[in-house]
Amino acid sequence: AKEGKSVLEINIYDLAVDLLKEQGDWDWLLENEASLSRGEFKEELQGVLDVETVLVPSMASRMEAAPFDVMFISGVGEVFPYIRSHSILNNLQKVAKKQPTLMFFPGEYKHSLVGGAQLVLFGLLKNDRYYRAFNILDRAS
Questions:
Q1: What is the pLDDT of residues 75-131, one digit of tens each?
Q2: What CA–CA distance (Å, rounded) separates 108 from 135?
Q3: Residue of 16, 9, 17 lying closest to 102 (CA atoms)
Q4: Nearest-CA neighbor of 135 among 116, 114, 111?
Q5: Residue 129 has what DSSP assignment?
Q6: Beta 101-103 vs 70-74: how paired, if at all?
Q7: Is 98 exposed, middle or buried (0-12, 13-18, 19+ CB in 10 A)?
Q8: What are residue 10's phi and psi, to 5 degrees?
Q9: Quick one: how many helices (H) and strands (E) in the chain?
């Protein structure tokens, strides 16, 4: 009998909330959200949840804590625009080298010779460029 594959799921939204609570910023953000402009709020979140120095190292810790065959990343739409998917993928490739990573992305993956690879968030935003990604549905046989 063939055994199943073990999956490590990391929901970026849940991870961000956990990190904000661990760092003691959650309550402050909840109390001050209404008085901050959208730009100020975005800046606060991005400072506390820096992808390279906070988010990806936390993901790497979770990867080391539990053996897995494939990693699922979800919650991408919930953290936009504070955390961008291409930033996660670009920084994650430094630590996620052995097992495949599958990102559940609320949008479309587009590839052309002229434009390269694009992750088009919600079918509207075309700024998320990540050149090593591919659409898993294109690989299904």
A1: 988 998 888 887 898 899 888 888 889 888 877 776 666 656 666 667 665 555 555
A2: 9
A3: 9
A4: 111
A5: -
A6: parallel
A7: exposed
A8: -120, 110
A9: 7, 6
